């Protein structure tokens, strides 16, 4: 794997975060709720504190971002967004392995129509805890 680095986001990075989110998950969100740009920008600002976000750099190029939330039980993976051009190249697997190695319980949510992401999480040992009409709620126990 070529060089992957994580770099802390700052308060000035919301536009860059939005562009990554739009590129990586817009088709999935659009099919479920539609894509209202104003809503998505506001939602990102409200639910994505920059202090929790690290940009994913691949050979110096920003290709995504990761947002982790520490909980009493472990870590909630709030966001793992990788732009389309870099999806399915092992980067998500690499990052998940790093997170898994901390030995904590991991949890996340994924839209049911995002089969690529769901398949990655299943491959990495996550199991479905519950589901609703739109999402799977997954966990991965400590090893």
UniProtKB/TrEMBL annotation:
Pfam families: Acetyltransf_1 (PF00583). Keywords: Transferase. The keyword Repressor does not apply. CDD domains: NAT_SF. PROSITE patterns: GNAT. Residues 4-143 form the N-acetyltransferase domain. One of its GO terms (molecular function) is acyltransferase activity, transferring groups other than amino-acyl groups. This is GNAT family N-acetyltransferase. It comes from Arachidicoccus soli. The lineage of its organism: Bacteria, Pseudomonadati, Bacteroidota, Chitinophagia, Chitinophagales.
């Amino acid at each position: 794997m070529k060089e992957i680095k994580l770099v802390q986001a700052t308060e000035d990075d919301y536009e860059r975060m939005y562009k990554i989110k739009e590129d990586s998950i817009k088709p999935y969100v659009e099919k479920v709720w539609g894509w209202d740009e104003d809503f998505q920008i506001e939602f990102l600002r409200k639910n994505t504190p920059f202090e929790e976000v690290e940009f994913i750099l691949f050979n110096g190029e920003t290709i995504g971002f990761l947002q982790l939330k520490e909980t009493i039980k472990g870590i909630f993976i709030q966001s793992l967004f990788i732009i389309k051009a870099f999806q399915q190249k092992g980067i998500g697997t690499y990052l998940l392995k790093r997170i898994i190695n901390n030995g904590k319980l991991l949890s996340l949510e994924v839209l049911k129509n995002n089969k690529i992401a769901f398949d990655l999480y299943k491959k990495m040992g996550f199991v479905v805890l519950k589901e609703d009409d739109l999402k799977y709620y997954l966990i991965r126990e400590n090893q």
